[in-house]
Amino acid sequence: MADEDTSQSVDPASSQMPAPEGEERGVGGTAPNPPVKGLAAPCIPAFLPRSKKPILERALEGEALTSITSNPPKKSLLRAFTSLRHRNYRLYWSGQIISLLGSYMQSIGQVWLVLELTHSAWQLGLVGALQAVPVLFFSLFGGVFADRWPKRNVLLCTQLSAMIQALLLWVLIATDTIQLWHLYILALLLGLTNSLGRPTGQAFVIEMVGREDLPNAVALNSMLSQMMRIVGPGLGGIIIAASGVPILFLLNGVSFLAVIVGLLLIKSHELHAQAPQVGSKSERKNTWQSLREGVDYVWNTPAVLLLILVVGLVLLFGSNFNVLLPLFATDVLHIGATGFGFLSAATGVGALLAALWLAWNNRQPTIRRVLVSTLILGALEVLFAVSGLYLLSIVLIASVGFMETDFAAQAMTALQTAAPDHLRGRVMSVQILFFDGSLPLGYLLMGWLSGLFGPARAMLIGALLCLLITAAGWIWHKAKGMRFP
Q1: How far is the C-alpha of 198 from the C-alpha of 88, rounded, in Å?
Q2: Which of 28, 138, 170, 478 meets the CB 3.0–4.6 Å disulfide criterion with 249?
Q3: What is the dihedral of CA 13, 17, 22, 26, to 10 degrees?
């Protein structure tokens, strides 16, 4: 699925057990897996030993694998993939492997195509902006539609739309009729498609795996994205050198078939939350009323509001180090292009390790854990800003990449778990607005500060602001005694 993350009126808090006094409760409850429908009670032969009967019962009911994967050995690597025990999510995730690979290959192909047509850095930025801006301005409406319609159907529409756009671009290039304005329109349309698909996709994960395995599923999605971010552009560059740009768009268009087939094979009755029925109260509201309902929920739920504001601001000031790394390589560490490549690779390795750790750990996040992660991120960036040692800087920037993925994935898991089923799409759209919207603004801010004070001081200012924001969030959290609903 192109770049990336529900709709019931059941309050998730109703299924929670009270937390022990003085102990912070995890986000949301852990509802048991629903029983397998359509299976009669198995007949157990009387001659079997009593200790064997429960195992055979579970095997006949199709629950033996679930039992094994839900309680894996503590040191087994298999526990990093526990959410794949859910058939629906396994289909979805497998399709994403191929689709994301195609999308990242097309991203480098699009950049190369614009460069061939214009040789202009301004045009490169403009095409990228046309694709990103709709996600910021229209994702809130995407969340409304995600809560109003069955999410699988919404994703099928967005994936079909993205596939058609990629194939149309391939036809234009292959017939040598491509013009720059074609790229403008198709980039804008892809951005509009993503503004609907991204909140829907994020909100759909919990329906496939339930609350218990949601942390693992979010971490696996993050791990997959990081892997494809590394592999996709590299493979795309090889294909461009061997066959030219057009084949990338054809491959991307075909790659959408994998996730479309996966979505078609998903069994709706096995989802952990069902889509709202036509004619329900939520459907009778108009779009603006539904949008306001979602925003009001975020505004009036202190724990959710704190998480969105703190994480959004930390991403604004602390997750824009990529724009400074070239300057650190040339002006601070004096390590040249090779050193810059290793610094960039270190951030990717750190992010991938964080995703693997989160998937293996599979713990429900809390406000405390998210705040601790943002605190560590700020401290690591302070150390990186003042470090003049190349090897130490490699370790520090890898650690920064680790902590960035750690707190961002925890925050997304927390928001998905805490949001009521019938509002989850709208809550995730607010999250996309604040989390994703903060990044381009942060790039501009860090570029401006770097021009004034140099890269080291610019990063130091951003890191100190992260620490101040985390401290303010911690005080707010303690003063209000916040817990997720």
Answers
A1: 18
A2: 170
A3: -60
